[in-house]
Amino acid sequence: MRTNGHQPRGGGCPYLSDGSGPPHATGGTADDGVPPGSTPYAAYAAMDTLLALQHPRTGAETEPGFIILSQVKELLFKLLHTEFGTARGHLAEDRLDDALWTLRRAGRVQQVLLSCWDAFSALSPGEFASFRDVLGSASGFQSVMYRKLEFLLGNKNAQLVGPHENTAKYDEVLAQLHEPSLYDEALRHLARHGLDIPPEYLDRDFSQPYRPDEKVAEAWRLVYEQPGRYHGLFLLAEALTDTADQFARWRYTHLLTVQRTLGDKPGTGGTEGSRWLSAIAEHRFFPELWSIRSAL
Length: 296
Ligand code: HEM
Known about the structure:
binds protoporphyrin IX containing FE; 12 helices; mainly alpha
C-alpha cells in the first residue's frame, strides 16, 4: 500500500505540536512560517480566511446556515474532483489497486456530501423565502466545481459551459469538457486487459456526450459473468456503480429538498425548478453498468 509518507507527530491529532500535552504553540515565530497573531492550526489551513468568507445579506436567522452549508458542499465538490481525478490517473497507469482504494475514499466523501441535505431540509418554506430574493439569479448551475465534477465523471454537455462564459474560470471548465472522463479511462483499462472495446471509444472527441454501446455492455457482461477470471475488473465495475449510485442519490435528495422548501416555484437559474431537477435525476453515470443488470 502506498502512503504519502506523512506521519502525525505524537501519533495523535496531527495539529498537536508534540503529542505530550496540550498544545501551546500560538503566535508566529520567525522560523515556523506562522504569521504573527495567528496559530499554526489557523495558518496551516487558512482558517482565519475561511471564517471571514460568510456575508449574509439579510438578518434572516437561517441565511448564515444556508451560506455555510453551500460552502461546505462546494468544498466537497472540490475534494471529490481531486479524488476522482486521482483515480482516473491510476487507471491510466493501470494501477487498478490504487484506483480502487481511491474510489473507496471518494465514496466516503460522497456520503458526507449526501448527508448535507439533512441540514438543508430543516429549512421551512417560509424560512427559505425570507432570504431567497437576495440570491437574485444565483444558482447551482453556476458552480464551477460541480460542473467540472460532472464532466470528469462523464456527463458531457457543452451547453453547461455557458454559465461560465466571460468568467475567470471559463478555460478551466472548457478544458475539463475536453479531457477523457473517469469512465473513458476505465474503458481504456478494460481494452488493455483484453476486453473488446470498440477503437472509436478509446480515442474519440471527449467533449462529445458519451453514447452507450452494445459492445461495451458485452465487455462488462463478461466481467460480471466471470468474476473469478476478471476479479479486479469486477471490483472496478462495482466501485464505479457505487460512485454512480451515490451521485444519483445526491440528485434525488436535492430534488426532494427542493420540493420541500420551494415546491413547484421556478428556480433562480431560470428553469422550471423541481420539474427540471426531476428530469435531471434520471441521469446515470456509466450507463452500460446499469443496462446490463437486467441481463445478469
Ligand atoms: C433549499 C436549497 C436549494 C434549492 C431550493 C435549490 C434549487 C435548485 C433549482 C431549482 C435548480 C435548477 C436550476 C435553477 O433553475 O436554478 C438547482 C440546480 C442546482 N443546484 Fe440547487 N437548490 C438548493 C440548494 C443547493 C445547494 C446547497 C447546492 C450545492 C451547493 C445546489 C447545487 C445545485 C446544482 C449543482 C445545480 C445544477 C444541477 C445540474 O446541473 O445538474 N443546490 N437547484
